[in-house]
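User: Structure please.
Assistant: Input sequence and predicted structure:
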Amino acid sequence: MSSLSRALAAAAVLAAWGCQVEWGGGQISLENPAPPPDTTATAAVELEPEQIPLPIEPHLYAVRLDGSGTARVVPIAGLAIDEDGLELDEIAIPDDEDPSFRARYDSVFLAAGTDLDLLARGGRIGSLILGDVAREGISGCPSVGTGRALLLPGQDVPAYAFAVPKGTSGVGAPARIAPVESTSSMGVAGPVLAERLIGGDRAFLARIQSLTPVELIGDTLAGMAATWMIADSLAPGPPGQQAVSLFFMARFEPTRGFIPVWEEVRRYSDAGNKEAIEFLDWIRIGSERLDIVRRYDASSVRLASSVTADGEDREISWIEPPECATLARLAR
């Protein structure tokens, strides 16, 4: 190969790398014709937050009603339903990790026009049609929405109810559901049960704070749910010394009287340990029963629930995060 041929071959190789070549006293600048890689798009993709997937399970909603049918509504838990039964899952809104999550979540679970089954007192009392989203979003908690309750004529309207997607509860068509009436025997049996369940030499100091007649599945006679306290009350304020709270649910058996089926006793020495429980309502999801209660501590009132099938032991199995305080947000 001649010297000229060798020089041209070298120049061709170097051209691919974008170099300057000296040849025969002259200088030739050789540039790679391929455009430089575009790093802008890659950087933009890397900087964009990853979208967190939305939950796919149906949700349970708490609803505040007024006499005109206007409602405020907020999702409070996911309903995990499988062969092992029902569990309530916490709902978290990751605003910091994914700024788009709340808007996407609201567009699915608080979408205007969504038709929900409205539940109270163990049955279905009507339907709830969702409206606008108020977006009173506390960081980490679902937004508050609005709605319109469609109830049967003559239905007694509770202050609070609950809602699930249509068909989720399995309770069928709406029906008029009247409050369960209290009986004189509840007033007689209540103090006796309270002293026995609290125990100790101070049990006689317990004072009733709340009593609600309740229906228990399979019973024809009303049971009761009651809250008794020593040196404290359900009102705001610090407890007294050596305070005690008792919550119990009891069924009525004609031959034995009231038999406790769920009790929660708490003993606390200061406001930081306070925990008192008050019955709110119960609903049915398939074969499962959700008894929903208010849980009072030193600074907030939170929703909590016991999920049981008929005959199972009852205990609090779900409680909402303290920052969400659903009842207070619905009351605003």
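Confidence is low (pLDDT under 50) at residues 10-17.
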